[in-house]
Design a protein that fits this description.
By secondary structure, this protein is mostly helical. It has helices at residues 6-15, 29-37, 47-57, 65-79, 91-126, 137-140; strands at 21-24, 41-44. Helix 3 (47-57) crosses helix 4.
């Protein structure tokens, strides 16, 4: 979950991003790159750890975006010494990661289109009369040699 708007990020640059830390459950490479390129310390956190932490803090298990953000921030405050900071990977490695992410999206789209094609073909096979027109012998005679 990411709760930073672009105007907020521009304001944050004015106060010095090197003093800011970010904890993120689902690391999207573009978002991580955005923060790392600006000197923000990024801590990846395990969603299962946050789930257990939520159970210890909120026995009711209530969830909301704002509540989750506060919970993750609290988790980071308490456990930052045991978490590892994410470092900007080498440019070629980062580029490879982006290529792999793009490939995964393309494969997912390919599978979606193949499934759509199969559904269309199954519908055509189950209703073949819709694809053919009835032609009488009288209409075919001019074409017979």
């Amino acid at each position: 979950m990411i709760m930073v708007s672009i105007p907020l990020s521009i304001r944050l640059e004015k106060i010095g991003l090197s003093q800011i830390v970010v904890a993120i459950e689902s690391p999207h490479q573009h978002v991580v790159d955005f923060f790392l390129a600006r000197g923000v310390s990024v801590y990846p956190v395990n969603p299962a750890a946050i789930y257990d932490y939520r159970k210890s803090r909120k026995p009711s298990g209530s969830k909301s975006d704002e509540g989750d953000a506060e919970l993750i921030a609290s988790y980071l405050r308490e456990h930052h010494k045991s978490l590892r900071v994410w470092h900007l990977p080498e440019p070629k490695l980062r580029q490879l990661k982006l290529f792999v992410d793009d490939r995964d999206k393309i494969v997912t789209e390919k599978v979606r289109l193949q499934n759509q094609h199969r559904r269309i073909m199954v519908n055509d096979i189950t209703a073949p009369e819709a694809r053919f027109v009835t032609i009488s012998l009288k209409q075919l005679m001019p074409f017979v040699i």
